[in-house]
Amino acid sequence: SRNDQVSTDLKLYIRDAIDHLDGLLLQLQASFVSRGETDLDVILPGYTHLQRAQPVSATHYWLAWCEKYNRDRERLADCRKRVNICPLGAAALAGTTLPIDRQRSAELLGFDAPAANSLDVSSDRDFLVEFANALGLIALHLSSWAEEWILWCTTEFGILKLSDAYTT
Asked: What is the reported pTM?
């Protein structure tokens, strides 16, 4: 059925997107960790509600972002578990009379297992909402990081200067 084929294609696409995003977040974390090694003696002002608070080490700052992106990666991995269930063979909703091997189809496409219930999997779009939620949190973390650096680059703060290669 085109129903289970579309659902399968969508899951394959989301699964690939999750794997790609996980790799990008891992690279970002690695960059923060490597930067932390060079900034062991750098002290930054910590802020709360845009007011200076306690001093913090730059390495501590970098690792804080690693924690956020690690939670993002964990959410993606958790979502991937539910994405990686194969809908093929559910047909429009009640299965198929064709002699297909659902387990083998799932294996060939790299799914963990075929869906247990055809009626459920034919209507399941939970994984899309879950993926969109994970993307929203990743965007929130990236936006928070960007906003912090934007503030730090202002004359008022003067903590950071970015090369024109990255900004104008």
From this structure: 0.88
